[in-house]
Amino acid sequence: MNLIHSAVLGLVQGLSEFLPISSSAHLYIIPWFFNWQYQGLAFDVVLHLGTLVAVIAYFFNDWKRILGGAIKGNEERKILTFIIIATIPGAIFGVLFEKQAENVFRSPFLIAEVMFTFGIVLWLADMLGKKNKNMKTMKWTDSLLIGLSQALAIIPGVSRSGSTITAGLALGMSKEDSTRFSFLLSTPIIAGAFLWEGRKIEGLLQVQPISLLVGFITSAVFGYISIWFLLRYLKQHGFFPFVVYRILFAFVIFVLCLLCLIQ
User: Fold this and answer.
1) What confidence tens digit (pLDDT) does each residue in 123-145 have?
2) Every domain of the chain and the residues it spans
3) Which of 32, 71, 119, 230 is a Cys-bridge partner for 246, taking CB atoms 3.0 to 4.6 Å apart?
4) Rounded CA gap, 75 and 69, in Å?
């Protein structure tokens, strides 16, 4: 893996982790398209560490307020409880279907189908959601359903942020609060994935340290930028451009797959 590959994949991870377009799909499809050797889940974990740093840095004051409020026993404790509840399904599914995530689910045809389908679901949720709830008025059942939707993100193309934002919108949350809750929820799930996959230290030893560093830095920088951008963009706009992107991306993958079959 050369430094250009590392930088490109770090940029892709940083942007697509928080935008509802599926980072796992892009991290698989882009090397597949350019015929790069797949970097493996161990390198993906380093890229996820970069986005973990980005989301912690961006929401540092939020986490400080939530954790401090939980200790004091005020309403912030409820938000922390919701985050914990929503984290559990994703953690369980991630462990149970780890092998499938590395093999069975990494099919370009499947990724194209999932990108298209969940793009339409996001569009419907954005169009039809009532948007009259926020993180302080949501219920524990809402957080559980959002957590179950996050569990689906083990399939490349679903998108962790996309699935949780979609679920939040479908449950009546506002665009801003469903997105903010999704980003806060990403902190424990990304941290858990890093710790779980970090046991595969032999995978990291196969990648040059400078490549890991470049991937980590670009992932962190562009992850921070994507969070900043999306939260501001949603103040006046909806998710339709991301829906269009998902559909076009799925179409391109499908066409490429057909060309490969013909050849």
Assistant:
1) 999 999 999 999 989 999 999 99
2) 3-262
3) 119
4) 7
